[in-house]
Amino acid sequence: xxxxxxxxxxxxxxxxxxxxxxRIWNDKETRSVIIQxxxxxxxxxxxxxxxxxxxxxxxxxxxxxxxxxxxQPASYDINQHLIEYTSRSSHFRAMIVGxxxxxxxxxxxxxxxxxxxxxxxxxxxxKNWLTNKLAHVYIEYMRNVPILLHILxxxxxxxxxxxxPKSAMNFGDTVFLSNRGLVSPTPxxxxxxxxxxxxxxxxxxxxxxxxxxxxxxxxxxGKIYPVFWISLLAVxxxxxxxxFLLGSPIQWEVPALKGFNFKGGWNIRPExxxxxxxxxxxxAAFIGEIVRAGITAVNYGQTEASAALGLSRGRTLNLxxxxxxxxxxxxxxxxxxxxxxxxxxxxxxxxxxxxTATIGGISLNQTGREMECMMIVMLIYLILSLLISxxxxxxxxxxxxxxx
Amino acid sequence: xxxxxxxAGAGADPxxxxxxxxxxxxxxxxxxxxxxxxxxxxxLFSSPANIVMSLVSLFLLYKxxxxxxxxxxxxxxxxxxxxxxxxxxxSGACWxxxxxxxxxxxxxxYPVEERWRVWLAFVLLVVVVVAVLWEKCPFRKPLLWFGxxxxxxxxxxxxxxxxxxxxxxxxxxxxxxxxxxxxxxIAFSLPIGIVLALGRQSNLPIIKYSCxxxxxxxxxxxxxxxxxxxSTMLSYFxxxxxxxxxxxxxxxxxxxxxAAYMAEVIRGGLQAIPKGQxxxxxAMGLKYxxxxxxxxxxxxxxxxxxGIVNTFIGLFKDxxxxxxxxxxxxxxxxRASLADTKWNGLTYEVYLxxxxxFFVACFAMARYSLYLENKLHTGHKR
Lengths: 404, 382
Prior knowledge:
Chain A is α+β, with helices and mostly antiparallel strands. Chain A has helices at 2-18, 20-26, 28-60, 91-124, 129-143, 147-161, 193-221, 227-245, 270-297, 300-308, 313-343, 355-367, 370-399, and strands spanning 169-171, 175-178, 181-184, 186-189, 250-253, 256-258, 261-263, 266-268. In chain A, the strands form three sheets. In chain A, strands 1-2-3-8 form a four-stranded antiparallel β-sheet. Chain B has two domains: 27-74, no CATH class; 99-110 and 167-376, MetI-like fold, CATH 1.10.3720.
């Protein structure tokens, strides 16, 4: 008996001795600490290694690491600059000009792609066979061909197929479309115009307040006001009427053909048009599919139920279908907006001077500061992405289903 | 028949059915309530708005289609030695250009006498792809095992060494380059993406946040900046005196790029798996990796198939961006060929040809994913 007991005890001791490591390993908390410490050590070692390499390599070719070059003159031209810029401006200013150009094409692209995308999504759901199939063919073509090819193709069409400025397409002697871009008149507002502008702002504020008030009245009494028509009247009709009543207080500087190109007026460059159209047409196809999926995701019973409640078709759409569809649509939509912003960096292929082409392209090549320039460019895109996703998350939280 | 039934209706027999003239079920349905006319009426002309849309669509087709067909087919020149010869023959497209440059479009500058290796690698790729996609494929098991080592075999065949003449990777180009980048990216981004997605779901904070940081960083910057990093400054981070091949650097960047997107797609799938599944696996005594491999991942990957294939398609299309750092994929070859004085200015032919190539490849992938989705769909559908 005693020998049995001692044998058993011996057994326990041996497993214990053998299992010191395995005991540590099998304890959940200790193990997680070990794994994390190892992972952290590996990551730190990796970064230390590449940073050391970078320091040694930079020293070997006599390059430092500083951002001083940003204040040196850039000495190159940028063909589209919304703020003052000459070739004597600094690299920093070139970067800002590029950033503005990126933001400009991204916002314009987001607006156009959203409008076209919603239209395409609705067309894809149309009962009309022909329209439906046309939208389908368009979407499949756009989605399955690389965006870079679309950009080059649209740019090619503008540069090679549109007429030269001399025989530009003429829209009422004010707007001209040629292979040098779109030229439109520049407005020069007179003092009286600011009254119209003030009226417009007042109209917008009135519309917002009226909307809130009408909603409250409807919640309390059930009385419905024609909010849309009254808002339209306040925001558009009244200011426009006022504009003509005051005798059109804007002077238009109409462009005129001088030599080989137009003088005066606003010139929207062909690179901008090509990039903007290609980005919007491409992304619209994706948004179209997202919208279609969102609308089909709303159960048909919802439409039937609102018909049973006696809601009209328009109100069914506005109050029942679209709010529910939006919840499905918005998250993928925001990633499409991010895609437009990131894809706008392909501008470099057709010579639109965005942030990649200025600081990440010409400045990089001129100063040879690859490390600093690429860090700036990446940081800018990260910040832009963060801004867009913060905004879209805010919007998504606003329209999200409120649950218990 | 009609006369009979009216007579019967007027007659004494109450059990005989009475039919109004023209309503007997044996009669053919009236004109325009069946067949193509009904289809036309229901699908194209059912309401005034519908009629307007049909007319607008028809007008668009009338405006676009004849011109395109004329240019691309009816009025196109398929043979000719240079652009002027094409123009002399026909006013439309000059496809002779594409057919003359077809080999360049396919192989880039890969040496002519070694091109059998590209063909062999391509045939092996087709075999592996068929084995992966087609469940009833004969010898599927061994072929799948071969599929795992295929990237090494293909790399050896294309680059050479070990008995084959070495070919420098800057000779790679055209469709072959696209396939090299696309297939490598697809093959390696899926496993890396799975690991990243699991890491992001992990309860170990350091693992979790390093995965989150990596994924969000990659997803926040455009691919083009990563390619710039690969081409201009990656060598700074290597030990002094070493440098490696540009194509390899691009492959690594493209793979990491699509792995980050893949990780997000798979995370969506992982999040859709009910917690009970993991708890049940724990209760069965399964450890982390077995429970992931046997319980969670099969379900999560099945849900994320459409997203995974979409990422593949995106990756395949993104291979065109390498032209910006000077590699010559079909688009790059095309643009380089346009500089040739013999074929100057045939932009649309080049772009349409390249567009067709990408369309066929991506459309096929999308269709296969649709098929797979329907096959694996086990729930109810409205």
